[in-house]
User: Fold these one by one.
Assistant:
Number 1:
Amino acid sequence: MTRKAKLYAKARVNPRGLRFAEFVALVKAFGFAFDHQTGSHRIHKHATIGRIVNVQPASDGKAKAVQVRAFLAIIERYGLSLEDEG
């Protein structure tokens, strides 16, 4: 199992347990590219589906669970898959 696949599994099992850096890596692994940042809000956009993902750290340095769950819903809705590792 690749590192990206492990992160995806971790996010699905426990969205609250994902560190912010892990969440950003997971967003990028599904083909979202950094678009812009306003304050702590980092916006990533997917070129194919045109959807954006708002990513911001919680005060404890972890990803916000609501954002992780919303991201997982986008993955399911559009049938996105992990990009090749490398």
Note: The first strand starts at residue 32 and ends at 38.
Number 2:
Amino acid sequence: VVSKSDINQMTAENIAIVFGPNIAWPKGHVNLITVEHSVRLTLILVKHFDEVFVR
């Protein structure tokens, strides 16, 4: 998806914004800061997927 971001507008950052809160939803009180942390974590996973998910 990211490799086609020039066509679909789904950059790594946009994918992290969409999936971050669903992948790493924080426990307890949720606010914009805690959601931002989950987005950052997801962005790292997307950008470094080949290092994180080694075959």
Note: The chain has a mean pLDDT of 90.
Number 3:
Amino acid sequence: LSPHSNMPPPPPPKNPPPPSPPENLPPSSNAEPVLSEIEVIRTAQEFIRALQNASLDNGDLDAQSLQDLLNPDQHPLDLDPVRDHDLLMCLKMFIAQQDTYSSDESYTANISAVHNAYPDSKLYSHYRIEKEVKNLSGIQPILCDMCPNSCMAYTGPLKNLEQCTQCGERHYDEKGNYHQKFYTIPIAPQIQARKWNEESAKELDYLHSR
């Protein structure tokens, strides 16, 4: 037998070298992702990045809509048939105009005719009644330019393009005006508006209270 066979093994070094990092690990989540050289994939990556970095500070809500979202009205919605007679009448005419696809001028003409018959009525212009509808319904659309052929919307990484990537239609006409608008209806103002009414607020609480 060796004279050293019963000796304990030597102790490990006090400061062992750090283990080597495994190979083929994905890049750190903090690292800037590498964009593809393929245009359609690169565009998708840029949209994903925009969604990941989305916040109220860099969104498309205008200043007033953002203020209304962060500081909603705390009073319940209560339209009185007598007190709010003029507003309710204008709302009905506005809805009728929308249902029959009439022009804005037709609403204005109807308002003018009513005002001639009832000069003491406090009637709403088309601009004012449209604003009231937005406030009462919570429908605060976000508008962005779109291709008139419905190929794409000029938003995100496509916002500043001069023409459609699919059909080649120009973003603007000869006078510098957009061809068509795309509407996005955010959900948060709609939920807030439903909470202003007692009946719809109870409906929102159905799963909790059933």
Note: The mean pLDDT is 85.
Number 4:
Amino acid sequence: MTTPPETEPETEPETEPDTTTGTGTGHPAGHSPWLSRRTVLLVLGALVLQLGFVAGYVGAFHDPTPHAVTIEVAGTGSSQVAEALDGLEGEPLAAATADTAAQAREDVTDGTVTAALVLRPDADSDLLVIASGGGTSLASAVEQVVTAVEADQGRTVTVSDVVPVSDGDARGLSGFYLALGWVVGGYLVASLVGIADGSRARGRRHALVRLAVLVPYALLGGFGGSWVVTDALGVWSGHLLPLGLVGSLTVLAVAAVTLTLQALLGTLGIGAAIALFVILGNPSAGGAYQQPLLPAFFRVLGPWLPNGATTTLVRDTVYFDGPLGGTGGGWGLLVLAGWLVVGAVGSVLLVRRPVGRPTTDAAPLSPAPLPAARA
């Protein structure tokens, strides 16, 4: 008699878990069906940025009010009029006297002061000298304040715009949007570098390489934006070189700072850059409403951020005595240089620590015992 061969016990076929549903054991082994803590934090971060955007822009622009706008008074009785303007409720003007009407006009023309009031007692009206190239909203605000004061005295005002905006820059906003484009380009390219190459550089040399890559990008972005507004669109004639240099410095400074923020915070550093340059930087830049018209927080913050520094530099370059003169007196260049230094140094110092190599004197692992042979 022969015995039948032994057969293996039947087992149920293994089935892959159902990953199409979010119930039961449908999620992959070792993974929770719920959102990770990191995802939740990113969603909350997006909400904070959204609310910050609304608070920043509405908070800055909902009630533009002049504050300490510089104005000079020239002519007979200038001291008394300047004192009256300087003592207005709410301090909308910061008035001083000029020796002559010609000096007052020159100070407005070169951007030293925002406006000048030339008293003409023998005429039916006094002369208000403004420079709308320095900001149309600001010029209009000064005109409204002075007109109201003159009306209380039974006088009228004739307005002379000695630095009008160019024909291609009807509302005087082109400089702000040019600066905005440079700032966006700076933090955008740095964000992409961080996503593709890691939030932190793999050592000091790698950090320097990452910064070096940004230089040609900054030059192309800076001079490219300058060419678009000067030659391609004809907003302003000339100024290609100084605007290109200002733009290149802006792009490089913003990009370097964004790299540092990513090195500090990882992916959240991109959100921090958006908060700094979009939520805080854009409303305080002096674009639609110039800085003397903004609330105190934005008025003080604006000149210290790249957005405001660049916007002022563009206006000074196009309408006044260039980036080293005008309303900013070259302050914007120092601000951009400072941000560039901080960003470059930070991105070089905040690098990944090298992973330690295993020591050679460590005890070797003993081989696993062989299984016992079956009888």
Note: The longest strand covers residues 69-74.
